[in-house]
Amino acid sequence: MNVLEKANAIKNGELKALDNVNNYIKVIDDKNPEINAFIELNKEESIKKAKEIDEKIKNGQEVGPLAGLVIGIKANINVEDLTISAGSKTLENYIGSYDATVIKRIKDADGIIIGINNMDEFAAGSSTETSYYGVCNNPAAPGRIVGGSSGGGAAAIASEMCDIALGSDTGGSIRNPSSHCGIDGFKPTYGLVSRQGLLDLSMSLDQIGPMSRDVYGLSLALDTIAGYDEEECTTLKNEIPNFTEAAKEVKEKEKPLEGMKIGKVKEFTEVSDSKINKIVDESINKLISLGAELVELNFDYIDICLPTYYLINYVEFFSATRKYDGRDYGYRIEESCGEEVLRRIEIGSYISQQEYSGKFYKKALQARSLIRNEINKMLKDVDLIVGPTVPKLPHKIGNKLEPMEMYAYDVLTVIANLAGIPAASIKAGTVDDIPVGLQIQAKPEDDLKIIQTISAYEIE
Ligand code: GLN
User: Is 288 exposed, middle or buried (0-12, 13-18, 19+ CB in 10 A)?
Assistant: First the structure.
């Protein structure tokens, strides 16, 4: 049963919301001690909410589009009364005092928030090994990292602990763990979804987005959370399409991707593991068999993507963390955080102090414009850019990587954040039983085309 069929079954009374919740609680009780995908659970409240929904349905009352679906939330998105630690000791005692805009919308749509997902500390990582709450295990590739930083959400989907998980993506944090766990993850166009209530990593790059087991989990979530928010000035005012209806329509077509031009980038292949390229090529062939036309593209700036991204990230993160000084809430961050977070604060502080000379940050912003312009130019010739999500396979838990090796996981995902474009990862296949993702990127505000492509790709 796909996520839309499940949502419909609940609305028809064929499946009780309460059973959906209880089934997931059973799985969580069974598997979470090993996987560590959830770091806080909201069981009683979820059961109460499920009973209310079932009661409404029984009485013929209207319920929301997410009615009875079970949802996990990354630990950096404010949910009232739950612990919003951002995976850090710094905020271990911080209880959300309000609902972020996306959470309000999920609650209004009758989604059930089952708990809080594990993550890399302050979202600054690609492995979910840096969480204060312990490492998260990969259910799809046992013994390996789950990816990150939204690793808990991806692991929760992959081990069937919930229907939808909300993550945040600054340089790949939704797409990277989705790739390593073999699930669907979507980073919207910058500004499509409100960031109000998200704890910033790097505010000019951060976006909230969904993860799920199929396109309908993504589309139902987007239909709920996307759209203008008067409390958040970076949200776009444009009209939002109905993602779920569009995903449904695609399934009816004989050649669903007819007329769609997809670009494959030579430099993306060059930086990726050959086994990954082989699997990704097979999935690109599948898109071609669905009607898409392949175009070869070149991107000359691959070498400057990581330095540009990390420089901006350090500076914006340094600035975002000044409020964690131990006075208003939490502990003083420099005294309570882990190694990677401290590294970013220290380098970010250094760069900020040096900035009068315009040597670093200003240069990074110029490089960002170059990258954005080049990507937009490439997207003039095609509808989508397709390729690997992550250039290498996830390492075994326990192997200690140097910072640069860890950052190397992000080379293909940071581009979408730097350019502000929408991007998703879906399962391309496996290499040595380890899931590998296909990344699909589109023009700004062409989020719908990505959803349609995923829907076509998943036609049974
Ligand atoms: N791995 C990247 C980083 O460490 C991306 C993190 C993210 O998207 N939150 O910054």
Answer: middle
Encode burial over 351-372: b for 16+ CB neighbours within 10 A, e otherwise.
bbeeeeeeebbeebeebbeebb
For the CA of 406, the nearest atom of ligand 1: 1
Q: Are 221 and 229 in contact (CB under 8 A)?
A: no
pLDDT band at residue 460, thresholds of 50, 70 and 90?
Answer: confident
Please state, in angstroms and rounded to a whole number, the distance separating the CA atoms of residues 92 and 108.
28
Per residue, the 3-state secondary structure of 163-232, as one string, reads CEEEEEECCCCCHHHHHHHCCEEEECCCCCECCCCECCCCCCCCEEEEEECCHHHHHHHHHHHECCCCCC
206 within ligand 1 shell (Cβ under 6 A): no
**pLDDT at residue 106 greater than cutoff 80:** yes
Q: Mean pLDDT over all residues of the chain?
A: 97
Taking alpha carbons only, the member of 137, 174, 132, 130 closest to residue 340 is: 130
Task: Write out pLDDT tens, residues 107-143.
Answer: 999 999 999 999 999 999 999 999 999 999 999 999 9
The average pLDDT across 392-414 equals 97
Residue 56 pLDDT class (50, 70, 90 cuts) = very high
The Å distance, Cα 312 to ligand 1 centre, comes to 12
Of 238, 237, 188, 184, which is closest to residue 215 (Cα–Cα)?
Answer: 184
